[in-house]
Amino acid sequence: MRMHVFEMVVIITVVVLVAGLIKDWMKKNQTPPVDLSPIEDRLAKLEALQERVEVLEKIVTDKNYDLRSEIDNLR
Known about the structure:
The chain is mostly helical. It has three helices and no strands.
C-alpha cells in the first residue's frame, strides 16, 4: 500500500492540530504560582511568639518566682 500525498498531508495536519489543542489545554490547566511570603511572615512571627511564651513559662515555673512574689506582696 502506498500512501498518497493528500493522505499524508491530512494526517500531518490532524497531528499538528491535535498537538496544538493538547498544548493549549495543558497551558490552561496549569496551577498558577502561589505567593507564600505572607504565610512565611506569619510563621516567623508565630515562632518568635512561641519563643517568648517558652521564656515566660520558664520564669513562672521557676522556684524562686514564688518566693519573689511573696516578698513583693509583703512590701
